[in-house]
């Protein structure tokens, strides 16, 4: 048996963080974020404990405890954003399952994107920016993957995970994700990396995403409606005829009471009703 070569994290080519979410004794919540992490040989993986409970990460599956930690293990990671890292080189294994030795019902997976003979089942994937603050991502995978699970991950240029969603492909194996990017979190960078993770064995499709920092609306123009409640049946806004009471919605949006996605959906409702 050939074991993966574990080296000091300082020598790794790339660094990825797996967050340990607050512990949920009911087992219903995923402990590790992301659930599956695609990496390249030599990458460094850091488990960051965002919990108050201690955890210890070991390779393997809890059903076979005799082999736990054979490939890698961390020290006990105490709570309070403490962390522990390993680096993995691909030698003979496509990926590694791991679990928390203290809470063995919580499991995760790491797999190599640069392994030989990896499948490529993504037939189409693309993105577009809608109404300045909505990121729409869609595509199609092989038909036999319909109704199976996928995980969508988006990283910024510093490999910080800023978006994760676990869903099922549609029955026709298509997918479409609509993401509100009006939050200031999306204004700190312009270059993002999407990783679409799915399948058994696991595979990943990556795509670069460019989001201009100036996509956020200037909400000050909505605030003027907070003072404008003169009686009238309707008014024009961005060439859309809206009922007078919608001025309150504009005011709320200007004060960040509603999200960009909610606001755009409201506008589209009236636009499509014309």
Short description:
Residues 26-104 form the Blue (type 1) copper domain. The chain is mainly beta. The chain has 3 domains: 6-112, Immunoglobulin-like; 122-214, Immunoglobulin-like, CATH 2.60.40.10; 218-273, no CATH class.
Description:
This protein has 274 residues and is mainly β. It folds into three domains: 107 residues, Immunoglobulin-like (Sandwich), CATH 2.60.40; 93 residues, Immunoglobulins (Immunoglobulin-like, Sandwich), CATH 2.60.40; 56 residues, no CATH class. Helix content is 10%, strand content 38%. The chain is built from three helices and 18 strands. Strands 1-7-5-2-3 form a five-stranded mixed sheet, with no helix packed on it. A four-stranded mixed sheet has the order 4-9-8-6, with no helix packed on it. A four-stranded antiparallel sheet has the order 13-12-15-16, with no helix packed on it. A hairpin with a 5-residue loop joins strand 12 and strand 13. The chain is elongated and about 75 Å long. The N terminus is likely disordered.
- Please work out how many helical segments DSSP would assign: 3
Per DSSP E runs of 2 or more residues, the count of β-strands stands at 18
User: Structural class given helices, strands, pairing?
Assistant: mainly beta
- CATH fold naming of the largest domain: Immunoglobulin-like
CATH class of the largest domain: Mainly Beta
Helix content: under 10%
């Amino acid at each position: 048996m050939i074991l993966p070569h574990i080296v000091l994290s300082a020598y790794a080519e790339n660094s990825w963080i797996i967050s340990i979410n607050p512990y949920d004794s009911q087992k219903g919540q995923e402990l590790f974020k992301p659930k599956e992490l695609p990496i390249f040989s030599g990458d460094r993986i850091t488990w960051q404990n965002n919990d108050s409970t201690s955890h210890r990460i070991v390779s393997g599956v809890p059903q076979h405890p005799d082999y736990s930690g054979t490939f890698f293990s961390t020290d006990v990671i105490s709570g309070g954003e403490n962390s522990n890292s390993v680096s993995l080189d691909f030698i003979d294994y496509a990926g590694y399952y791991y679990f928390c030795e203290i809470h063995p019902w919580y499991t995760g997976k790491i797999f190599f994107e640069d392994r030989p003979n990896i499948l490529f089942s993504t037939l189409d994937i693309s993105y577009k920016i809608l109404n300045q603050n909505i990121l729409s991502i869609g595509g199609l995978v092989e038909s036999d993957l319909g109704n199976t699970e996928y995980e969508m991950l988006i990283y910024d240029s510093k490999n910080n995970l800023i978006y994760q969603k676990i869903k099922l492909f549609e029955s026709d194996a298509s997918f479409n994700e609509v993401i509100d990017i009006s939050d200031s979190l999306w204004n700190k960078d312009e270059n993002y990396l999407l990783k679409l993770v799915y399948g058994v064995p696991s595979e990943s499709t990556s795509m670069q995403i460019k989001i201009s920092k100036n996509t956020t609306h200037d909400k000050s123009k909505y605030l003027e409606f907070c003072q404008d409640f003169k009686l009238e049946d309707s008014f024009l806004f961005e060439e859309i005829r809206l009922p007078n009471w919608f001025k309150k919605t504009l005011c709320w949006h200007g004060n960040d009471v509603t999200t960009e996605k909610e606001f755009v959906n409201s506008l589209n409702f009236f636009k499509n009703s014309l």
